[in-house]
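Data deposition worksheet. Section B asks for the primary sequence of the deposited chain exactly as it was used as input, without tags or linkers unless they were present during the calculation. Section C holds the resulting structure in token form. Section D is free text for depositor observations; keep each observation to a single sentence. Incomplete worksheets are returned to the depositor.
Section A, Depositor: J.P.
Section B:
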Amino acid sequence: MTDIAVKEIRIGDLGKLADPVFRSGTAFFALLVLVILGGVIVSLVDGALPALRGFGWSFLTTASWNAVTEKFGALAPIYGTVVTPAIAMLIGIPIRSASCGWR
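Section C:
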């Protein structure tokens, strides 16, 4: 019969290898998220430039939307986008806080 040597692997030995691998993997994916976010921002700016060149920066501050005269403004949609979640938070946060108090 042959003797087969079995090497015991201790949890401490795995930690010495696992910690640097985990740290490197986490750093890689954190940087990947930042690169993707940068790409999204570049894409949004690239898509918005034709509208800003055509309508000027007043596009962001005027509320008129007239397709006949081709005068457009984004203030109303921007206002709605900001105010709707604000109202939802004004209603939701007190309800959440009250429900956390009742156990």
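Section D:
DSSP finds two helices and two strands in the chain.
Helices lie at 11-55, 75-101.
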